[in-house]
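Now for one record:
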Amino acid sequence: MDNQLFDFGMVGLGVMGRNLLLNVADHGFKAIGFDKDPVKTADFEKSANPGTTVKGVNTLQEMVSQLSTPRRIMILVPAGKPVDDVIESLLPLVNEGDIIIDGGNTFYTDTLRRYQYLQPKGIHFIGIGVSGGEEGARFGPSMMPGGDLVAWEHLKPVLQSIAAKVNGEPCVDYMGKGAAGHFVKMVHNGIEYSIMQLICEVYDILHRGAGLTNEDLHQLFSQWNEGELKSYLIEITADIFTQKDDKTAAHLVDMILDKAGSKGTGKWTSQIAMDMGVAIPSIDMAVTMRNISSLKKERLAAAALHQRDGQPASLKAANLDDDCRKALYTAIILSYVQGMAMLHTASKDLGMEIPLHNAVKVWRGGCIIRSTLLETFYSAYQKNPGTPNLLLDDTITALVRSNINSLRKIVASAAIGGYPVGALMNALTYYEAYTTGRLPLNLLQAQRDFFGAHTYERIDQEGKFHTQWGKEEAGSSKQ
């Protein structure tokens, strides 16, 4: 084939790489993919739609030599050292002005390091968070590119064509400087962790607590998905309750071990939020619950010792379904609020300059956390792009205030009944603390000053103060 034939190259033809590249080809771009495994390259070519131009090759040199310039090369291999290895293998083959894209779930500091490494070599590097799983990659993902603006401008025609569309707008846009793309995707995944945990806790209340069957739950979640809770995660949850197990004929959800897996992105979100001094307690608890779930043998032993194996307390109550709906809705709003507050801080403190409206805009379609709520958040950022917290927006304040009592009722009932609802509790605590004018942390500052001379501030004077606690008369503190 002619050397300058292909528009877009892909390194790694696993499920995500293959589907994304087929999506590129479907939109009129000539696509070439590299994989060491000839079976994968053959499968890629066989999967292409008629009339599209695709090619699979088994050496990087073959791929690079057949790309038009500036070359656009995306890497979709496991995060970490494999990405560095691919970059090193590409360097002798590419020229100044070419573009290398990392589309994996990469830790943002690795993206920043690679950006700084390639920039002096004249190679444009951009990290792109991609959400939507296999189906999204094939038919329209949500994409979060950040970093090199030149690379973004070159990639924009391809990425906008393959992205999911909402109201005619592509679910891809520039996320900011440096490693902003992968940082936004990391926070997206943290929010995803929180929402999934919240859904599980409401499921537990309704199923174990109130005795709703899988059929009941399917109907209820289907109804919820027609209203303000309409979202991808509510939709698939409704579908899960209908799936039968081909081995036992029972409902499959009842046959699945209650031991959750994790790929680490939620943990990264919690770790970085701690480092930044940002409160994201619902996300933190979602990570914690996955960790506790993995202790299955210990949990069974503890359940027997603490006599927790009996019938749990009934949570049947008037309007329980409606209170659960309102509680879940409120807690989901608060999950987004926490994640967006983290992005606001990163934008400022890490110099990423993240346009927050772009983040919620690209999450409206194609991604796992897509939800009708995102239109509300999009409007809020259009009104006030610099708001540090969405709870300072009038519309969102009204939504939360009108539903918060249901969250309080559900958390209280679950706590009394002995149901673990940490994500719901933490969402409520976040709200109560953030919207309280005076917290009891004045006492904590007194304790810190008492044992460590850490000083405190006063409500009536500027400055830092220290007291010799219990050794001087009242009023003798000094600045």
Remarks:
- Confidence is low (pLDDT under 50) at residues 473-477.
- Residues 8-174 form a domain with the Rossmann fold fold (CATH 3.40.50.720).
- The CA atoms of residues 97 and 123 lie 5 Å apart.
